Amino acid sequence: MWRYLAAGAAVLAAAGGGALLLHRHSPAAALPAAPTAQASEAPAPAAEPDVPAAAEATREQRRFARYDKDENGAISREEYLANRRKSFAKLDSNGDGRLDFDEYAARAAAKFVAADRDKSGAMDAAEFAATAVKRKPGRAKCPPTAAPSGDES
């Protein structure tokens, strides 16, 4: 029974708060008072000087600018593939212009060696758990709700 009373009080409080907000933002409240003779004689407040705002580049414009190295307004094939060439060069450890499997999987192999702490050549469950990708913490999730106790007084 007390839950119904509490819910009713919450609804009334929300309705009262909503009425206050609506009254505060109503068009009649936002209109200025009619000018009087004294108000027309008062000096007008000094206008703030117009300060030009720098146009902030959008995310896509910044991305385009990173690729357009010669700044000619167009991205050539070479400009587009430049980042891929750098990544390929990092993986091509022997510099022969080809990636064999060991070069391609070097990062994974290094990760395995680092995770295999006992140097047994195999990972147990704890060692394998250390290889999980570390993610940035996201938004906090709602805590689990308690099950209703069933004692309504």
UniProtKB/TrEMBL annotation:
GO terms for molecular function: kinase activity. Residues 32-70 are annotated as: Disordered. Residues 57-70 have a biased composition (Basic and acidic residues). It comes from the Bacteria. PROSITE patterns: EF_HAND_1, EF_HAND_2. Residues 79-114 form the EF-hand domain. InterPro entries: EF-hand-dom_pair (IPR011992), EF_Hand_1_Ca_BS (IPR018247), EF_hand_dom (IPR002048). Pfam families: EF-hand_5. Residues 32-56 have a biased composition (Low complexity). Keywords: Kinase, Transferase. The keyword Kinase applies. The keyword Kinase applies. SUPFAM superfamilies: EF-hand. This is Histidine kinase.
